Amino acid sequence: MKIAIAGSGALGCGFGYHLQKGGADVTLLDNWEQHIKTISEKGLTISVNGSKDNQEMDICRPHELKEKMDVIFVFTKSMGLKSMMESIEHIIGPDTKIVCLLNGLGHLKTLEKYINRKNIIMGTTVWTAGIDAPGHTHFNGQGPVEIQNSDPSEKEATIEIVDLLQKSGLNGEYSENVNFTIWRKACVNGTMNALCTILDANIEEVFATPTIDSMLRNIIKEFATVAKHQDNVTLNVEETISYLKSLADKVGAHYPSMHQDLNNNRPTEIDFLNGEVAEASKKLGLEAPYCQQITDLIHAKEAILGITTTKVK
């Protein structure tokens, strides 16, 4: 099976590494020149749950890959999805499957502009990752990776990818309700990522604060309201809080991706998380003051750092 990883940052490299170890023919796609050069010349150096390895891997810029792929995993930042899809249209065949594990909300609408809905597989992952230097990454977690086909007639093809993920040690699971999973993952990022970024602290530190229950409850209530109105997804607020606390215990002293982005002067995905909830609330005639305030605070930090942000869908 020929697989492309469209966006080979920390998570993309982690998935590409495991899929290749599992027997797939993997090509990493990225635009970071030093990252490409290092992996091409010295292989990918990766630490998986503390165990270090080096793996030779094919890597190039998106336009340099010429053959059609069987499966493409997209791991761009939310605001980079449109640009990436434009750059890989030439490797998408009539039967190519796109697996989208991006953080955030609203990505299916973007993907449908470039590929038939029957070939789109949506999902989530709770693996965490980071880049230590060009060509050097770390990858932590135990899964699961939950996916579901957007077209009910394509379940068999999705099951094949679930099997591939399982063989690769990525704990693939077929979801019967991926929209619920996506919204719950959005709650993870809309709380953990956003709060760690605003407070300049890791997950362990944030979840040890005396105000954590209040902060989580106020944010999740707004996510739950929009999820119900927009996608008929029911999020139990108290159950979601318990899930987040359990996840925080497992992850520990990790700085999430949004915090990493600001520390490296990169724009954040806040518009596709709390910002999406605030925007959707307005369209529905509702209010989401906590999500709006969080979005404004993150954008204020970006402005202070001189980071230009543009929401692209």
List keywords for this structure.
313 residues, alpha/beta, Rossmann fold, N-(1-d-carboxylethyl)-l-norvaline Dehydrogenase, domain 2, eight-stranded mixed sheet, four-stranded mixed sheet, 12 helices, 20% strand, 6-PGluconate_DH-like_C_sf, ApbA, pantothenate biosynthesis
Polypeptide structure, described:
The chain has twelve helices and twelve strands. Strand 9 and strand 10 (about 135-140) form a beta hairpin. The chain is about 45% helix and about 20% strand. The two termini are about 30 Å apart. It is of the alpha/beta class. The mean pLDDT is about 95.
Report the average pLDDT across residues.
94
What top-tier CATH class of the largest domain fits best?
Alpha Beta
- Looking at CATH, the homologous superfamily of the largest domain is NAD(P)-binding Rossmann-like Domain
Number of strands: 12
User: What is the fold-level CATH name, i.e. the topology of the largest domain?
Assistant: Rossmann fold
Helical percent range? 40-55%
Whole-number total of structural domains: 2
Largest sheet entry:
8 strands, mixed
Structural class label:
alpha/beta
Shape: globular
Describe the strand arrangement of the main beta sheet, using strand numbers.
5-2-1-6-7-8-11-12
**Rg from Cα:** 19 Å
How far is it from the N-terminal to the C-terminal residue, by CA? 30 Å
InterPro entries: 6-PGluconate_DH-like_C_sf (IPR008927), 6PGD_dom2 (IPR013328), ApbA (IPR003710), Ketopantoate_reductase (IPR050838), KPA_reductase (IPR013752), KPR_N (IPR013332), NAD(P)-bd_dom_sf (IPR036291)
Enzyme class: oxidoreductase
EC number: 1.1.1.169
GO biological process, one term: pantothenate biosynthetic process
